[in-house]
Amino acid sequence: MAAYCTRADIEMIFGAKNVALWADLDATEDATNIDNRIQAAINVATAEVDSVLSSGPFRLPIADSPTTTPTLIREVTATLAGVYLYEGRGAEATVLDQGQPIHPYMFKRLWAMSVLQDLKAGRRRIPMLT
């Protein structure tokens, strides 16, 4: 399976420090483990994109490398990978005035999934793929 995004794409959205922190589940700062975790997140996100689009109008895989992946699919995949890393770390924030836990990146997950659903349903198009 070819990946639809790179670590740099995820870092562009969420920041390099955040991505490295989220990928370091054991807080060991082991670069190999961090790299492997980021690649695993990319693989999961790519598979999720393919899964959602599998019954849509697209021939899969969408691309054979991140450099040939359409910009919108690349952004969606990087977003999903970053959220996957964030959630794996068990990170959360709180609403200061209410003390309630919140997921600060849920809106990004919802955006990514809505783009995929719109593409699948034909409400959005990617000209180079249709």
List keywords for this structure.
130 residues; two-stranded antiparallel ribbon; mainly alpha
Give a written overview of the molecule:
The chain has one domain. It is built from five helices and two strands; from the N terminus they run H-H-H-H-E-E-H. Helix 1 (7-14) packs across helix 2, helix 1 (7-14) crosses helix 4 (71-88) and helix 4 (71-88) runs antiparallel to helix 5 (106-121). It has a two-stranded antiparallel sheet. The relative contact order is 0.18. It is globular, with a radius of gyration of 15 Å. A hairpin with a 6-residue loop joins strand 1 (93-94) and strand 2 (101-102). Helix content is 56%, strand content 3%. The protein has helices at residues 7-14, 16-23, 31-53, 71-88, 106-121; strands spanning 93-94, 101-102. With 130 residues, it is mainly alpha-helical.
Ends apart, CA distance between termini: 21 Å
Tell me the strand order in the biggest sheet: 1-2
- Round the Cα radius of gyration to an integer and report it: 15 Å
Number of domain units: 1
Helicity range: 55-70%
Q: From N to C, what is the helix and strand string?
A: HHHHEEH
Give the beta-strand count.
2
User: What general form does the structure show?
Assistant: globular
Bin the strand percentage: under 5%
Model regions low in confidence, pLDDT < 50 over at least 5 residues? none
Quick check: average pLDDT?
90
Biggest sheet, open or closed, and with what strands and sense? Answer: 2 strands, antiparallel
Number of helices: 5
Structural class: mainly alpha
